[in-house]
Amino acid sequence: MTQKETEQEQLDAKQESVSDATAADENPEICFVPEDVNEFMTALDEKSRLLDEMTDRYKRLQADFDNFRRRTRQEKEELSTVVAEQIVCELLPVVDNFERATASKATDLDTLATGVQMIFKQLHNALTQMGVESVNAVGTVFDPTQHEAVMRVADDTQPDGMVVEELQKGYKVKGRLIRPSLVKVVGN
């Protein structure tokens, strides 16, 4: 062989190896060792098992939370029923006394007035036992968290913002305002 032919063969061989490398880059073929495949499959099975375990745990937690919510709602309803029963039991003696007073044929107005005052005192005591207290208004400075001003009056003898008359009593239950006092306030 001549030197030219040898050079041509070497050039052809280089071009062939370059074209093979380019073809390998365009269509890469992935080859794994069987041990690697087994390792990947084991890892995939483990991840799948963990996912199933977490999904099951999530479903159980969701069911537990739903049961907790239902149980809490039932307990609230039962508690409100018990509280309502206690309130009614405290007020029933007052109702009984009003029934007796209206059924009696009292000819003396003083006796009837005394009976109504006794019933009012009994009602007041029952409310006090339940934690009900009235809001102080007359003679105090207007407090928008305790009072509701419905009228303004001019009075030079009183300072501005002083409550001079209570039109409707306000009440608190265990320190929490349930109805503000309706009041007249000085506004000079």
TrEMBL record:
Residue stretches of biased makeup (Basic and acidic residues): 1-17
- Which keywords, in A-to-Z order, does the entry hold? Chaperone, Coiled coil, Cytoplasm, Stress response
GO CC entries: cytoplasm
Q: Which InterPro entries match?
A: GrpE, GrpE_CC, GrpE_head
Its primary localisation, in coarse terms, equals: cytoplasm
Q: Where is this region: Disordered?
A: 1-29
SUPFAM superfamilies named among the record's database cross-references: Coiled-coil domain of nucleotide exchange factor GrpE, Head domain of nucleotide exchange factor GrpE
**Role, per record:** Participates actively in the response to hyperosmotic and heat shock by preventing the aggregation of stress-denatured proteins, in association with DnaK and GrpE. It is the nucleotide exchange factor for DnaK and may function as a thermosensor. Unfolded proteins bind initially to DnaJ; upon interaction with the DnaJ-bound protein, DnaK hydrolyzes its bound ATP, resulting in the formation of a stable complex. GrpE releases ADP from DnaK; ATP binding to DnaK triggers the release of the substrate protein, thus completing the reaction cycle.
Q: How does it assemble?
A: Homodimer.
Give the UniProt family note. Belongs to the GrpE family.
- The name on file for this protein is Protein GrpE
The record lists the organism as: Sporomusa ovata
Q: Gene name?
A: grpE
